[in-house]
């Protein structure tokens, strides 16, 4: 058979050759594929489901604690309590609004008991959530978690929960301070009427939020897996996670609003939407960890 009549490569062979060529020519794309493969090999979807379960449970004691704190504030300010009740009745007319009002009044009267229940619930669900998050991070980074040790794990998860809370508070404080300072400077310089200043402040607010989220992701990627990798090598992954998280927040706000309006989910629309958003966010968190752990410089450090 002559060279001219040789059989051409099949479609599958050509597609695979093109796929390998794309990965070879685009390092960022090759890294994305390696991260996805690493994510799948660690069964990260199952880990994300466990994180979602305890994360969803932890929301309710957090709400109780918030109601308790609000109760202590409102008990000393009857004018604020009256305004709140009036706003609730305007926003939620009818029997449902009265039920919410009764709940607020009861929480104000029994704020101590509500706070205690919320704190106990937060300890249970929060520690369970932190435990699953720690195990997931260790699995993503190291292939398997540490051997279980009840006392050591309990203390570690409690300290980690406090540390994460501190990181979140620091992020919120940074965002609030920077946003407030920006508004103050704009008003001081008389720039509030300049065309486009609203867009500028909105973009600046997003950048500030990303900076705060980066601190949280740095803490998550460095503290929970207990790895010997310098923070500077993890920083690109933390920024990647922070940008993705801000996008998820924007999409999640729209998604939950749409689900809440669905007639098929009228009763539990918000809860269902929130549960789905937590699961998607948990999956992204673990994918960001996989993306970070497969960075070339991080891999070189680990070898």
Topology:
Layout: H1 11-25, H2 27-41, H3 44-75, H4 78-91, H5 94-109, H6 111-142, H7 150-188, H8 197-223, H9 231-260, H10 269-293, H11 296-302
Descriptive overview:
With 303 residues, this protein is mainly α. It folds into 2 domains: 44-145, no CATH class; 163-303, no CATH class. The chain is built from 11 helices and no strands.
Comma- or semicolon-separated keywords:
303 residues; 2 domains; 11 helices; globular
Could you write a compact summary of the structure shown?
The protein has 303 residues and is an all-alpha fold. It is 83% helix and 0% strand.
Encode the helix/strand succession as letters: HHHHHHHHHHH
User: What is Rg?
Assistant: 25 Å
Class per helix and strand makeup: mainly alpha
Question: How many DSSP-defined strands?
Answer: 0
